[in-house]
Design a protein that fits this description.
This protein is an alpha+beta fold. It is built from 3 helices and 8 strands; from the N terminus they run βαβββαβαβββ.
């Protein structure tokens, strides 16, 4: 009799948003915390970026990354729209209403928020260009 190894659980998918702001990381996280109803952020940094991470409503996780140099987000991820200097990652994606959260962030920052990628697992991504401007519905970019 043989036994099969249990299948490895796939990692939760993640939604990737980006925006442009002059705010520093802690101020960005305060805006995200208020807009999404997230808990307190924990902060960390490395040579290219600094970030904050918090638990959001309904068991979601929120990561806000603000690299030190212009163009770093685009170098890491070519789907990040030009000019964006802050990345917001939300997971698990299955429990998210991305459009609602992106609109809330656009209103709170007073700036367009771009939903540009869904990470589905190692080597698997869905990329697109969906913009949420303050006071508007989602706009599909060509």
């Amino acid at each position: 009799m043989t036994t099969e190894e249990p299948a490895a659980a796939s990692p939760p998918s993640q939604e990737h948003l980006a925006l442009r702001t002059s705010l520093g990381l802690e101020a960005c996280c305060a805006v995200v915390q208020a807009a999404l109803g997230a808990g307190p952020f924990q902060f960390d940094s490395e040579d290219e970026t600094e970030w904050g991470e918090a638990a959001g409503p309904g068991g979601i996780m929120v990561n806000v990354s603000r690299p030190y140099r212009k163009g770093t987000l685009q170098r890491w991820d070519p789907s990040v729209p030009r000019g964006c200097n802050v990345g917001v990652t939300l997971w698990p994606a299955a429990s998210l209403n991305v459009a609602e959260l992106a609109r809330a962030l656009a209103e709170a920052f007073g700036a367009p928020v771009h939903h540009h990628r869904t990470w589905l697992g190692p080597g698997r991504n869905a990329t697109f260009h969906q913009q949420f401007a303050p006071g508007s519905v989602a706009e599909q970019a060509p």
